Amino acid sequence: MCEAHRVIASPLKVDVLMHHMEAWRPSSTGHLINRVVANTGLHVYRKERPLICEEIMQPGRQLWILHPTGEALPTSEPAAGLQVLLLDGTWIQSTGMMRGVESWGRRVSLPMAGESRYWLRSQAADDRFSTIEALLFLMAALGMKEDCARLQLQFELHVYAGLCARGKKVEAANYLFSSPVSGPLQELIPTLKPWAQPSRRDRGL
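Above: the chain's sequence. Below: its structure in C-alpha cell form.
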C-alpha cells in the first residue's frame, strides 16, 4: 500500500478525536485520515483525561463537530474557513466523546445516504457509516470534488487490502468489482493478494 500513498492537501482543517479503544485497531479509518490528509490533528480521547479546547481549535476557523444529532449541514461556508472534528469510535463511544466537546463548536449532521463501503466491519444499521465516509460526504457537500475523489481511492484501497490480508477472497473480489481503485491503481492490485503470490516452492526457495 505504501506505493499508492498520496497526501491530500485540503483547505479544510481536519481533526480526529479517537477513542482510546479505537487507537490500537489497524482497520481504523481515523488512522487512515491522519496518514493521507495533510495537517490532520489526531487526539486520543480518555474520559479521565479531559482535552483542552484551545490546544485543538484553530484561530480564524469555525469548528464543526460532526454528529447525527446536529443541525442540518450549512452549504454556504467556504472550506478554507472551517475546521471539522471527527469523532472516531463506536456509536456509544462517540456519544460519550460528544458530551465532552459539544460546547466547543457547531454540532452538524450530514445528509448521508446509500450503503457503507467499509466492509471491514459490520454496521449496526443501514444508516451507519465509518469516520472517513463522514469526511467524504462532507467534502462532497462542500464542493471539494478532487479531494473527495483522491480520499475515496485511499479509503477503498485500505478496505480492499484489509480484506486481502484477512484471506477473504470472495469479499475482496466483490469489493474490487464495484470499486474505483481497479482503474488508477491497477498495477498495485495483484501485490495485495497473498493467495495470488507464488509460494516458496514455486520460487525455488
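The chain has one domain: 2-196.
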